[in-house]
Amino acid sequence: MLPNTTIQLPKASTVAHRIDSVSDLVFWVSVLFFILVVGAMVYFAWAYHRSKKGRTTGYILDDHRLEFLWTVVPAAFMLFIFAWGAIVYMDLRRVPPNAFEVNVIGRQWLWNFEYANGRKTMNDLYVPKNRPVKLIMTSEDVLHSFFVPNFRLKQDVVPGMYNYISFEAIIAGEHPIYCTEFCGTGHSDMLGRVFVLEEKDFDYWYETGKLPAGLVIGAPNGGQGPATTGGDNKKTLAETGKDVFSAKGCFACHSVDGTPKVGPTFKGVYGHDVELADGSKVKVDENYIRESLMDPNLKVVKGFVPSMPTFRGLLTDTEINALIAYIKSLK
Ligand code: CUA
Description:
Layout: H1 16-47, H2 64-93, E1 100-107, E2 110-115, E3 120-122, E4 124-128, E5 132-139, E6 144-148, E7 153-157, E8 163-168, E9 173-179, E10 192-197, H3 199-208, H4 237-247, E11 273-275, E12 281-283, H5 286-294, H6 317-329
Parallel strand pairs: 1-5, 4-10
Antiparallel strand pairs: 1-2, 2-3, 5-8, 6-7, 6-9, 9-10, 11-12
Helix pairs in contact: 1-2, 4-6
C-alpha cells in the first residue's frame, strides 16, 4: 500500500478514510504523471540537443492508434476518479433520519451552537461518539466556512439560508474547527473545537451542561480543552420558539391545533409536502420556513391569500431556529 498523504491527521469520522483514499489516489497519480512528463522532458532536452551531430528531425505523421490511446485511457481514468469521488460525496451528503441535530450559526468571528434542549455553547461543539450528527448551519452576517480537518468535513455557511452536513465521529477527544472562508479581520481567530464524548459522558453533559467529574478530554493532535460548557438551559429550543410565536403575534393567523385560520396551521406540517397556489409542491423544511418568514408571498400554500408581512430584520437567527424547532415539535 502506498503511504498516506494526509500527514498524521487522525481519521476521526466514518468518512475520513474514504475521503483519504480518493485524495491519495489523485495524489499518487499526479506524482506518477509528474515523473513521466518531467522525465521525458529532461531526456528529450538531452537526447536531441543541437550539439549532437548527425540528427535531423523526422517528418512525423499522425498515428491514430496512439492518439486514440492517449485520449481514451486518461479519459476513462478521469471518469473512474470522478465516479469514486461522487460516490463518497453522495454518502457524505446523505443525512441519516435519526441524526442528532445541532444548529450552527457562524458570525464575525465565532461559532454558536444551539441544541434542541436549549443548551447553547460558543465555539465548543459537543457531540456523542458513534452516533450520526446533523448540523443545520447558517450565518448571521457574511460567508463563513465550517471546517473540521480531523473529520474531513467542510461546509460553507451562508446568511439567509440553511446548509446541512452530517457526520459520525469515531475518535473521542478534542478536534479543531477552522473558518476557511475569509470573513474579515477576525477570520483567522475564528477557531472552535469539537469535543467528541462517549455516549454516557455526552448524555451527562447534555442533561447538566457540565462534564462528568474527572473526565479528561484528550486531543489527538493538540488541544486546549473546553472554554464554555453549556450553561443553563431553562427552556428547550422549541419552548423558546413558542415564546417567539406568541411575542411576534404569529397565533393571530396560524393555529397549532390543525385549524386553518388566515394562514395554514403549523400542526404536523414539518417534513411534509404542501401544495402551493400554482399546484406545485414544496417540502416544509428549515429553508422553506425561513423563506416564508422573509418572503412570505413567494410560495403561498394553496387556498390562502398572500397577506403575511415579511419578518426580515425582525427576527434573529436564534429566534428563527427556535421557531423552526417549535414548528418541528408540533407533530
Ligand atoms: Cu468566519 Cu472566516
